[in-house]
Amino acid sequence: AAESVITWMYVEAQPNVIDVWRGIAEQFEKDHPGVKIEMKFLENQAFKAKIPTLLQSSEAPSMFYTWGGGVLKAQAQTGMLRDVTGALDADGGAWRNTINAAAVDALTFDDNVWAAPFRTGVVAFYYNKELFQKAGVDASTIKTWGNFTDAVKKLKAAGITPIAGGGGDKWPLHFYWSYLAMRQAGHQGFVDAKAGKGDGFASEPFVKAGEYLAELGKLEPFQNGYLGATWNDALAAFGDGRAAIILSFENTPGTQAVNSTSGKGLPVENIGRFPFPALDGAPGVVTDNFGGINGWTITKNAPPETEEFLKYFSSPDVQRKLARDAKILPVAKGASDAVSDPLLKVAAEAIANETWHQNFLDQDLGPNVGAVVNDMSVAIVSGQQSPADAAQQIQDAFSLENP
Amino acid sequence: MNTTSILAKSLPASGAGITGRTNRRRRSFAKSKWPVLVLFLPPALLLFTVLVILPMGEAAWYSFYNWNGYGLPTQWVGWRNYQLVLRNSAFIQALINNGLIILVSLALQIPLALWLATMVTTRIRGALFFRLIFFLPYVLADVAAGMIWRFVYDGDFGLAAGIAHFFGFEAPFLLADRDTAMYAILAVVVWKYFGFHMMLFIAGLQAIDKSVLEAADIDGASGWQKFRLVTLPLLGSTVRLSVFFAVVGSLHLFDMIMPLTGGGPSNATQTIVTFLYNFGVTRMQIGFGSAVGVILFVICVTLAFSYKRIFMRHD
Amino acid sequence: MASVELRNVRKAYGSLEVIHGVSLSIEDGQFIALVGPSGCGKSTLLRMIAGLEEITAGDVVIDHAVVNDLTPRERNIAMVFQSYALYPHMTVAENMGFNLRLSGAPKPVIAERVNEAARMLDLMPLLDRKPAQLSGGQRQRVAMGRAIVRNPAVFLFDEPLSNLDAKLRVQMRSEIKTLHQKVGTTSIYVTHDQIEAMTLADRIVVLNQGRMEQEGTPMELYKKPANLFVAAFIGSPAMNILDGTVDGEGGEPAARLSDGTAIRIAADRKVKRGQAIKVGLRPEHLSPGVGGTVLAGQTLLVEPTGAQTHVVFDLAGQPVVAIVDGEYPARYGARFEANIPAEQVHVFDRESGVAL
Amino acid sequence: MASVELRNVRKAYGSLEVIHGVSLSIEDGQFIALVGPSGCGKSTLLRMIAGLEEITAGDVVIDHAVVNDLTPRERNIAMVFQSYALYPHMTVAENMGFNLRLSGAPKPVIAERVNEAARMLDLMPLLDRKPAQLSGGQRQRVAMGRAIVRNPAVFLFDEPLSNLDAKLRVQMRSEIKTLHQKVGTTSIYVTHDQIEAMTLADRIVVLNQGRMEQEGTPMELYKKPANLFVAAFIGSPAMNILDGTVDGEGGEPAARLSDGTAIRIAADRKVKRGQAIKVGLRPEHLSPGVGGTVLAGQTLLVEPTGAQTHVVFDLAGQPVVAIVDGEYPARYGARFEANIPAEQVHVFDRESGVAL
Amino acid sequence: MTDIAAPPIDAATEQTGGRRLSVGTRTYLYVCLIVVAALVIVPLVSTALGGFKTLSDLRGNPFGLPSEWQWSNYGDIITSQRYWLQMGNSLLIAALTVFLTLTFAAMAAFCFAHIRFFGSDYLLNYFLTGLMFPAATAILPLYIRIRDLGLLDTYWGVVLPQVAFGLGMSIILFRNYFRGLPVELFDAAFVDGCGYFGFFWHVTLPLSRPIVATVGIISFVGSWNSYILPLILLNSESRYPWPLGIMVYKGEFSTEWHLVLAFITLTILPTIIVFFLAQKHIIAGLTAGAVKS
Ligand SMILES: Nc1ncnc2c1ncn2[C@@H]1O[C@H](COP(=O)(O)OP(=O)(O)OP(=O)(O)O)[C@@H](O)[C@H]1O
Ligand SMILES: Nc1ncnc2c1ncn2[C@@H]1O[C@H](COP(=O)(O)OP(=O)(O)OP(=O)(O)O)[C@@H](O)[C@H]1O
Ligand SMILES: [Mg+2]
Ligand SMILES: [Mg+2]
User: pLDDT confidence of B312, banded at 50, 70, 90?
Assistant: First the structure.
């Protein structure tokens, strides 16, 4: 019989997670004879570089990882994707109803859903309890940016590298600028900027956010050589206990261990979490979350079983399994109860109670503006650009793309 | 500076055209030449045109569009991409870096190569072995060399760290520091390519009539005088060739930068080609990237031709 | 100007000895030619004198001082190379003045000396050209000019004419001879062309496989070659060599060839009856009807050259060359008769090759 | 074998004509030498005959057929090149058989023909070597072998010996001559060495600047050169040429040189009194004490070559070469006297150079 | 007979003749040479040794011998399929590139060297422009063209552009060499009855072994080490040549330097071995004709 082959392209590098996925895929294959799922790994950078060209070739995968946002929008506009709206709404919305609305919304443009939601994420500070204790810092007291910089100073004074940063990859540092901008501009500020109102991203709150970031940079809080360090290097620095704080994804407890020199990393008990603090006198609140909403995009020529598989993949049972074994924050309604890991639980709660969820800016604003945001974040931290210039450059790039 | 640049040796010959020699070819056989031309030329011609010349022309065309590579280019933007490129501080940095690489090649690498070449063409035991060792980095892939030096420079695990710890100070992160990264890369460039230039010089030295050097001995030249007044002038064409390679090669530098810094930290080590890759290819800004390609092309061709005109006239 | 002496000089490349102890003394102002077949060690010997090649054993003495360890510059010699070895990037004037420039002579002095030498060699109009713009003969003259400018103690020449064509070679030969007559510098001249050696040199040294075979004036070598090698090497066309045995008694010895022909040889040759010998007959001594032994055979080849004709004829189954007058009616296939006087017949021991 | 005829053949490179109408007819089996100075057009002419160079005007006729438009192979000629042009990657046997192989001859036939030629040229032991493993002379023989294997109508030689050293050249010269005597193929031989031409050829054609100067047997050219150019070109050492004017009446004409010396010339020369002439004296005719005019001057140079000695002496302010016997006691600076019979004195019109 | 490839005189290979160097000069030479050689060798050796260490060993002791030899670092890679797959891919791509380059370039160069035809100068200069710029300048249009030809993510998709970009140089090298063959050979072959094809096949090609080796080596090394073209034109990891593979590996095991070092060592090892075995040809090839022209 003619086999349908679903090619599945992903960037996930944690072997245990991939094992879980493979298990799910094998189960699906068993349930659907004649369907074969081929898993293809592509390294993150290569993946981002390749997808546009891949999409237009006969080699396009059936489904691939997406961060949503402008990138997904551009891809959708090529007509190379197959939207999943129909599948979601079939049988009276049988699939759509099982999923958090926020996740679906994040993957929707022009009233079409362009990817099947898979997981959400939230970026927050993780810290090394032992080192905090050594420096005499109490994490629970960090409520404002001022508290945070004080903590950094204290850590530094105690001879501890305060923060692990991955400036070589750039995007890890854009977390700082993004969060600061969210806190300073607030949800409305972002909406206005995106709508091109006023000076857009060059307007005052964004410059102000940059100034906070520049101040942080001046404290030299990052580990030695952070500008050349990759994200993995940063995780390793945190996991080895060489730096006390990392602004990172919800899966940090796992990834820091994998990347650490010993391969074991910090014991989970030794890791704490606190949300990105608020800024005095600014509209942003601590419950405004920054983090990914990931899904799987289906390409035009994918076999019809692909939707079937993705529906299965986001079904509550599978999502629970993923939450438990792969330590993700699930998108299926009610699946978060399977989150057992205490730190992940906190993250899941944060999502449950969030007031606004902002997708990663380097995805949300499209690959080009996003790259500029990354560049500028690094430039501000390292003192290369004044916050005002940086904001202007982001705005320039943005207005070029969105005339 | 990939191997393809070797060809430039032939650059001097390029304009030479038909010499008297070919004039001798008999014309009475004119009839029989067409079958050969018709069979022998087209494969090369076709491949070259389709995969080299046309894409180059298309690059020029795309450079006037804002295009992300999906579908067909439709959004004509005139010279805007060029303006953006030339205003981009990272591009300016890339130009400066390319200049720096050229400078170091000329001021450091070529003299070093020449110095070593004169040493390994003397009559000492092991000269051939040293030649091989010095040439070794050149045959390694750029990517591998970049990776090896990334390790050497690594502040945690690398040799730089080892040395620093040995002397008891904190390991520097040479590649992560804007102020040092480019110099670190320059060192790798020299490390990687001096052997190639040395080989050129060895070939050049061997082509010098030995009896001319003996004549200088007889004329009473000391070792240094012999080098400065006889060897060096006679190496003229080799030096010019070597300079040409260094210049063209440095403009092409890409493979090695990627594993080392990828152009970072904060664009401190971009070259024109890494800039093209980072800002054009990975961001799918086809128009913008093509504009960079066209600028690079113009720089290469201008340099090549003016260099040829000025320095290689006599070769 | 200086005398040059070689004292049992040897040269080995690794374990291969190529010069096996050569001793030679050259007087001040003499013109010496070193001749020998290719590979016999002429260049090596010359280069040892120049200081370009290390001396394995023995001494090179210039002007009564052992110079083994001196550099070429300290030996004050000048050398003209086979390939001329002109500096391609310098003009003729610069080429010629390079040595003086290195020794720090002031510019006007250099110019004057260069001009003087250029005038002597007729190079004045060429002073500003580069070597590539010169003809072979002109380059050769520049190479000589470079040598004389510095006024060296000794001139060394390594086959300086072998890259020139025949006509030019003859012309340059005269120029070298004339030059030596003018400046009188001690000269050592390497060549494999025996005509060149004979016409140029006061004395000739014949080398063979790193050994000296004979040394003497050109006419000595021509008339009294010490052995077969020298006999065959000197003279053009080369001496005819035939196998024979000594026959005839006491006052009238003769060499008997394989076909029975007897050739009378001079009575004073130290030959024993029955001795196996080689007989040497110079072509120019084989002329029809001048007395002496009559040798006859069928004409194999007739080569007219104008004034003279070379006739190759068959003698005891071997081709023998004779030189006859251009008017002589030689004809292919005809019988040819030549005479040779006994005192012109050379005899050599067949084993050792030594002249008897 | 075939006859070859050139009918007013011309060659122009672009607007530059280098062969200005040469007509020549060569009989079947003849051996012709083309001589002339470098650049006179010898090679060009030969290559036109070969079919390697287009003929601008005129006809080349081989065996009574015009071959202007035929390829070399169709003309059935074979050529021996100066550089031999052996195929370096083929063995001697393959080199020799290449032509036959291209024409599709069966293997055994090729082998047989190659063997035959190899035997003739003494190449049998070398058949399996590559050209790089051969000496110069052997290569030359292979080049000839390649030519004979195919049994061509005409042999063409372009300075086949000029890359060999003097000794070998003489030897190969004989071999070529012998070969021609054996196979008898019509041959055209280009050389700039007049000795080679004289010794080898049945007839010699002297070319100068693309024009034929004279054509005839070697002795004709030597004895009765048609003009100054041929006179100076043929003979070695070259004829001495001196300016003079005709003096003396009727039966006893003489040439008076610039210093007043009078040289008697043969009565049958068509000279007028007072006519400006050039006098030609062959060195070999200037010998001491044989009668005729006595010429004397200071000896400038003595070059012994063994049997003969070249003496350069001053005559009317010009150096004149004489050849004397090797025994003659010539000495630098001494007075030298030579005689020349009137019938050996060549005279040429000074303007046109034509022999009188 | 012209000697086609007379080896140049090389003082270093004939250890005998001439004057000996003084002890002082020798010492100076050796000290300088050894220092430079150390700078070349140390990074390479530490890379190889690093592959035998554990990460903590590497951290404490990047230079020295491993305190405990971790053979498994290498063993795991050697026994992994990806290593052999990448090597195989590189080899296949390089072999195809070399073959096509040699064939096409030799044929075209023959026309330029031996045939006079209208426009040959212009055509040659046309190919010469290929020398001027790297593939990078036109990488984006090139990508689109390969995509349109349906060759994306195939070996041919990498091979053909590599051949095309190598043609300019190869043609020049071939042409210069062909023109250096003695003209008389051409004449002799004509007299023997060859046409152009016959000459190409019977004379030019057999005599061109040195230049075939040269061009072959240059294009092989270029292909074997090339990174940017495969990076853009290949998608499937199963077709990756090793320079791409090494980068992926580095991406996967970014902080595990010991594994990365082992992988680097294993991937460059073939290059080094081949280099030392064939050094004479490689050096001759890469510096070919550089000084003569
Ligand atoms: N560097 C060397 N190493 C080993 N053997 C050498 C070296 N140089 C010369 N020879 C050998 O020494 C011998 C003499 O060589 P030399 O050059 O002196 O000969 P030559 O008489 O000048 O010959 P030619 O007339 O060909 O120039 C030859 O057998 C040669 O092979
Ligand atoms: N392809 C050409 N284009 C223009 N002129 C040429 C060409 N080939 C030869 N000539 C000229 O034609 C003339 C005759 O040349 P050719 O080669 O026939 O002389 P040659 O008598 O063989 O001289 P040599 O003895 O030096 O071989 C020369 O003046 C030469 O410069
Ligand atoms: Mg010699
Ligand atoms: Mg010629």
Answer: low
**Span D237-290, pLDDT tens digits:** 889 999 999 987 667 788 888 888 888 888 888 888 888 999 999 998 888 876
CB pair distance less than 8 Å for B281 and E55: no
SS3 content of chain B, % helix, strand, coil (to 5): 75, 0, 25
Residues B114 and B16 in one domain: no
What's D326's DSSP letter? Answer: T
- The answer to whether the beta carbons of residues E51 and E262 sit under 8 Å apart is yes
Interface of C with D (CB under 8 A): 165-167, 170, 173-174, 177-178, 181, 192-193, 195, 198-200, 218-219, 222, 234-238, 282, 284-285, 300-301, 303-308, 310, 312, 323, 326, 332
Let me know: does D97 contact D84? Beta carbons within 8 Å: no
DSSP structural state of residue B230: I
Q: Does B92 touch chain A (CB under 8 A)?
A: no
A108-109 vs A63-66, strand pairing mode? unpaired
- Closest ligand 1 atom number to CA of residue C45: 18
Q: Which fold has domain E88-251+275-287?
A: MetI-like fold (1.10.3720)
Q: Do C287 and C243 belong to one domain?
A: yes
List, as own/partner pairs, every contact residues D334-338 make where C-beta atoms lie below 8 angstroms and the sequence separation is at least 24, other chains included. Answer: D334/D298, D334/D299, D335/D296, D335/D297, D335/D298, D335/D299, D336/D288, D336/D296, D336/D297, D336/D298, D336/D299, D336/D311, D337/D288, D337/D289, D337/D294, D337/D295, D337/D296, D338/D286, D338/D287, D338/D288, D338/D294, D338/D295, D338/D296, D338/D313
Cα distance between residue A64 and residue A61, in whole Å: 7
Phi-psi region of E209 (alpha: psi -120 to 50; beta: other; left: phi over 0): alpha
- Count of D–E CB contacts within 8 Å? 70
> Quick one: C31 and C132 in the same domain?
yes
Nearest-5° Cα angle at A27, A24 to A30:
150
Whole-angstrom CA distances from C49 to A221, A227, C46, C75, E209 are: 76, 68, 5, 9, 43
d(CA C196, CA C35): 9
DSSP per residue over D337-356, as a string?
Answer: EEEE-GGG-EEEETTT-BB-
The CA-atom distances, in angstroms, between D11 and each of B21, D14, D215 are 17, 9, 20
**A239: amino acid identity, one letter:** G
B236 Cβ contact partners less than 8 Å away, ≥ 6 residues apart: C89
D35 φ/ψ angles, rounded to the nearest 5 degrees = -120, 165
In a domain, D354, yes or no: no
Indicate the pTM of the whole model: 0.82
Which two structure tokens, joined as six digits, stand for A138?
């109490």
Total residues belonging to chain A: 403
Q: Please tell me whether the interface predicted TM-score (ipTM) of this complex is above 0.85.
A: no
Q: Is residue D247 domain-shared with residue D198, that is, in the same domain?
A: no
The domain tally of chain C equals 2
Question: What's the CA-to-centroid distance between C31 and ligand 1, angstroms?
Answer: 23
Chosen domain end from C226, C259, C291: C226
Q: What tokens does C148 get?
A: 């004389």
> Could you give the CA distance from residue B53 to residue B262 in angstroms, rounded to a whole number?
28
Nearest CB to E153: which of A43, A57, A232? Answer: A57
User: Tell me: the pLDDT tens digits for E77-116?
Assistant: 888 888 888 899 999 999 999 999 999 999 999 999 888 8
Sign of CA dihedral A292, A293, A295, A297: negative
Closest CB to B212 among C52, C79, C85: C85
Give the Cα separation of B156 and A229 in Å (integer): 11
D174, D249: one domain: no
Residues D111 and D185 in one domain: yes
Please identify, among C226, C256, C285, the residue that sits at the C-terminal boundary of a domain. C226
Phi/psi of residue D244, nearest 5 degrees:
-160, 175
Asked whether residue B162 is domain-assigned, the answer is yes
Domain that holds residue D272: 237-349
